[in-house]
Amino acid sequence: MKETVTNKEAAAGTQSALQAAAVPSEASTAPQDAAPGAAAGTQSILQEAPVPSGAAKASAAAPKRSAREIVTGYQGPKVRIMEVCGTHTHEIFRLGIRRLLPPNVDLISGPGCPVCVTPVDYIDEAVMLALEHHATICTFGDLVRVPGSKMNLAGARSQGAKVKVVYTGLDAYLYAKDHPEEQVVFLSVGFETTVPAACLAVKKAAADKLKNFSLLTANKTMDNAYRALKGFADAFLYPGHVHAITGTRLCEEMVKEGVSGVVAGFTASELLTALAVILIKLQEGKPFFENCYPRVVTRDGSKTAQALIKKFMEPCDNEWRGLGIIPGSGLRLRPAYQEFDARLKFQLPKIQGHSNPACRCGDVLQGKCKPSDCKVFGKVCTPEHPVGACMVSHEGACSAYYQYGGNI
Length: 408
Ligand code: SF4
Description:
38% of the residues lie in helices and 15% in strands. The chain has helices at 2-19, 38-48, 67-72, 86-94, 114-117, 120-131, 153-158, 169-178, 195-207, 223-228, 240-246, 249-256, 268-282, 303-312, 342-345, 361-364, 389-392, 397-405; strands at residues 79-83, 105-109, 136-139, 163-165, 184-190, 213-220, 235-239, 261-264, 289-291, 313-320, 324-333. Strands 4-3-5-6-11-10 form a 6-stranded mixed β-sheet, with helices on both faces. α9 links the parallel β5 and β6. It is globular and about 70 Å long. The two termini are 19 Å apart. Bound molecules: iron/sulfur cluster.
């Protein structure tokens, strides 16, 4: 029954992608401080209507083509494009864009789902805080069902632990303020997008001199992850929301290191534009970057959010599920704010977690295999009974494949 519904949704999504074929209007609304060549560059690429490899040579008289026509008509060599962001993976499925792709365009998943890349040790730490230190755990909903070595947070809750679902660190701070008799720990996971709210929570807790609030940090930054994944794909579909915070200078730097990609938005037209730009630029044979989300992403990003992160957090080495420890890819509280660090406050020991050996989340997160290549996909491992984090999170690749794609 589920499959029938999702197929209908996919069909509807395909229709919406087909209808969104025209050159996106967003390209003409680039902010003043957008990266050089951002909107103008994207627009001109589409207006140039380049001819795919193997076809007759381009001429000034070549007809204009839409992003959809460029993507569906691609006849060049096989390309691998990594959807770094889990939301892109889901939206590309949901909008039916995958069904438009020719066989020589391979979309692979990447490490951009914050819950998915959080290692099993972290879940074990949270369970320990909940059961042994009787802390109240405040967390994003997805993390509650991510398996730990022995149990997940839902299991801890069934044993009496207090586990509350919140939307931001600020909710956790407010809960701590209202419940001074409880020790409240916010599970601070996620990338540059979620860190500012966690920093704001610490700022408010420090101002209120709260003694019952702390963060268990597993925050990550994307720059060194891109470097760790260099060579895994021909181009990255960079996450639009991350670069709304960081800006695009990093992506420009990556070009100097031989890494290509485009920042993409989340609508059908934005995603098709981003894919079309990648396919055109790859044929030019040199590293490139384009900002295909200029209505939101600028070259400098959000300086307010960046300043907040810099004031409260400092870089540290960090473990990513599947990728291991990536030097300098994490964020932890600066020494001035260590009273809000749950690991120090509760003197947590170093935990070595163990994930289910059948789970291939690590390979999925590096684009080494598709979710449907995992032997337990859709059988033992389903959204109702997830074996790994990628099937739990609404941004997880396994969840997207199960919901929309099967073995597409
Ligand atoms: Fe892990 Fe399940 Fe995905 Fe397999 S299908 S990689 S077990 S989350």
